[in-house]
């Protein structure tokens, strides 16, 4: 890409997690000098060496290239970020509290650290909240902390909201070529700086107020999650009617007013964003006196979808006690090693509680899955086994459940079926090539494919009066 130039906006990234690293690398790849900082020394040193702490298509290659080019540098303190960068993006976590409300402690801590770092500084600096936050956070939480701690005026230190819309699994591509840039600020200088920083991306810039930009992010996630839950609810009808949800949603989504993306039935949404953001959005709205019924229903349908999947498995396998179940795909979706809120964790928990023996496999997420499992389950409680080899996970299985659609699973091999005691696959992502699976001696139950295997209800809806 383009060579380094001191005239280019200089970017600081605070928090080199999934989102921050991809965001920083995208700026670097578009020719901007980037200075990345993370609280954790092990993340700083891995990234500085050009080793990606996360598995994502293209991430490590881009990291190595940008570290080598000198455009992406890791620094050791907030002070160093402030010295080098003009626009500093907060990419720190915003997890859920037990109440569902957003936990702003990491962001407040960052605001304080950077407030302190800014005390001695000179020249304009812009602090950009890129983490997903409830509306009002940038103006009412971050700005006052920075102003108080730094002792500098809003004319010297601007604030802006600039939410991020990338999706894990495609985060390198998404951050290099975003479809829109949403900027929330009431500071004209901040808007001008951000427009300049984002110019090489060639995406439309949508200026809003800070609270407006924050509301765009929550609304986008709520709507995408709603599409998933809608498809999941209709899938239950499709199963009753003996029609295929994929055909139905393809036809529904053909309407450009609706759009087919995210209208896919599956085991329910997981991942680090949808659940926590929707819970925070619902709580925040309720606190304001506005009941977000669509958000509440989306979350309820998502929880029910797990029970629906388990009922299908029970209908196919019978009582689960002592049954060997292979769980394929442990990440929350294919293309990432992120297991946060993965449906595989919930499925494993429920299956083990029902007495099944669980044998998991994932091309990249096995280690993260077990670490997450161990951090949420007491020692001595039943634990899934995780195998590097798919064939080993399938050995002697009474059934397999495909939870994440890694491409390898679509290429089902006869030798895999032969490993199983009963070659029965519950395909929760509709990923397997059915003709190929049949040739491989596999019996596939597709979620929402309209194959009735149990007496869970009438096959056709009752006629009207
Ligand atoms: N992951 C995604 O796909 C995605 C997409 C869009 C938006 N977001 C939002 O981005 C934010 C970050 O998400 P993530 O998935 O990258 O989280 P993450 O947990 O992967 O990474 C966060 C990083 O911030 C670091 N950190 C925490 N406090 C810090 C501090 N005070 N100073 C410096 N570093 C600090 C942590 O060590 C960690 O490495 C969240 O608000 C999330 O909702 C995430």
Question: What is the topological layout?
Answer:
Elements: E1 11-14, H1 18-29, E2 34-37, H2 41-49, H3 59-69, E3 72-74, H4 78-84, E4 87-90, H5 105-118, E5 125-129, H6 137-150, E6 157-161, H7 171-176, E7 181-184, H8 188-198, E8 205-208, H9 210-241, H10 245-253, H11 274-287, H12 293-317, E9 324-328, H13 343-353, E10 357-361, H14 366-376, E11 385-387, H15 390-394, E12 399-402, H16 407-410, H17 414-419, E13 424-427, H18 434-439, E14 443-446
Parallel strand pairs: 1-2, 1-4, 2-3, 4-5, 5-6, 7-8, 9-10, 9-12, 10-11, 12-13, 13-14
Helix pairs in contact: 1-3, 5-6, 9-11, 9-12, 11-12
The chain binds nicotinamide-adenine-dinucleotide.
Which key terms come to mind for this protein?
single chain, 465 residues, alpha/beta, Rossmann fold, six-stranded parallel β-sheet, disordered N terminus, binds nicotinamide-adenine-dinucleotide
What does this structure look like?
With 465 residues, this protein is of the alpha/beta class. The longest helix is centred in the middle third of the chain and has 32 residues, at 210-241. A 6-stranded parallel sheet has the order 3-2-1-4-5-6, with helices on both faces. A 6-stranded parallel sheet has the order 11-10-9-12-13-14. It has a two-stranded parallel ribbon with strand order 7-8. It starts with 10 loop residues before the first strand and ends in a 19-residue tail after the last strand. Residues 1-5 have low confidence and may be disordered. The protein is globular. The chain has 2 domains: 11-207, NAD(P)-binding Rossmann-like Domain (Rossmann fold, 3-Layer(aba) Sandwich), CATH 3.40.50; 222-446, Rossmann fold (3-Layer(aba) Sandwich). The chain is built from 18 helices and 14 strands. Residues 14-20, 37-40, 43, 91-94, 106, 109-110, 113, 131-132, 164, 166, 168, 272-273 line the site of nicotinamide-adenine-dinucleotide.
């Amino acid at each position: 890409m383009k060579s380094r130039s001191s005239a280019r906006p200089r970017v600081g990234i605070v928090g080199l997690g999934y989102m921050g690293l991809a965001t920083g690398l995208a700026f670097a790849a578009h020719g901007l000098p980037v200075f990345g900082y993370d609280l954790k020394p092990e993340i700083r040193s891995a990234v500085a060496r050009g080793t990606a702490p996360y598995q994502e298509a293209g991430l490590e290659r881009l990291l190595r290239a940008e570290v080598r080019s000198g455009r992406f540098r890791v620094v050791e303190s907030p002070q160093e970020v402030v010295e080098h960068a003009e626009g500093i993006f907060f990419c720190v976590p915003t997890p859920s509290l037990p109440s569902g409300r957003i936990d702003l402690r990491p962001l407040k801590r960052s605001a304080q650290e950077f407030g302190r770092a800014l005390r001695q500084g000179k020249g304009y600096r812009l602090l950009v909240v890129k983490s997903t936050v409830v509306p009002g956070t940038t103006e009412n939480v971050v700005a006052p902390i920075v102003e108080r701690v730094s002792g500098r005026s809003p004319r010297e230190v601007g604030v802006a909201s600039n939410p991020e819309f990338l999706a894990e699994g495609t985060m390198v591509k998404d951050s290099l070529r975003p479809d829109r840039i949403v900027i929330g600020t009431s500071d004209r200088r901040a808007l001008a700086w951000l427009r300049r920083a984002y110019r090489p991306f060639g995406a439309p810039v949508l200026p809003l107020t800070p609270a407006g930009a924050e509301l765009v992010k929550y609304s986008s996630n709520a709507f995408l999650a709603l599409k998933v839950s809608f498809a999941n609810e209709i899938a239950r009808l499709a199963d009753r009617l003996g029609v295929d949800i994929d055909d139905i949603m393809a036809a529904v989504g053909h309407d450009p007013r609706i759009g087919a993306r995210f209208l896919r039935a599956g085991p329910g949404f997981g991942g680090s964003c949808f659940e926590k953001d929707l819970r925070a959005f619902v709580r925040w709205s309720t606190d304001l006196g506005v009941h977000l019924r669509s958000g509440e229903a989306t979350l309820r349908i998502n929880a029910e979808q797990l029970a629906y999947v388990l009922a299908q498995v029970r209908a196919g396998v019978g009582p689960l006690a002592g049954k060997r179940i292979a769980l394929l795909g442990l990440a929350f979706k294919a293309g990432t090693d992120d297991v946060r809120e993965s449906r595989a964790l919930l499925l494993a928990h429920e299956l083990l509680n029902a007495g099944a023996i669980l044998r998991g496999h994932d091309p990249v997420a096995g280690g993260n899955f077990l670490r997450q499992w161990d951090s949420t389950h007491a020692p001595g409680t039943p634990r899934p086994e995780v195998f590097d080899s798919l064939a080993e996970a399938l050995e002697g299985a009474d059934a397999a459940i495909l939870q994440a659609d890694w491409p390898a699973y679509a290429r089902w091999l006869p030798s895999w079926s032969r490993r199983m005691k009963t070659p029965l696959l519950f395909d929760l992502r509709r990923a397997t090539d059915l003709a190929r699976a049949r040739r491989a001696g596999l019996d596939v139950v597709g979620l929402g494919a309209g194959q009735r295997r149990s007496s869970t209800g009438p096959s056709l809806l009752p006629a009207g009066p």
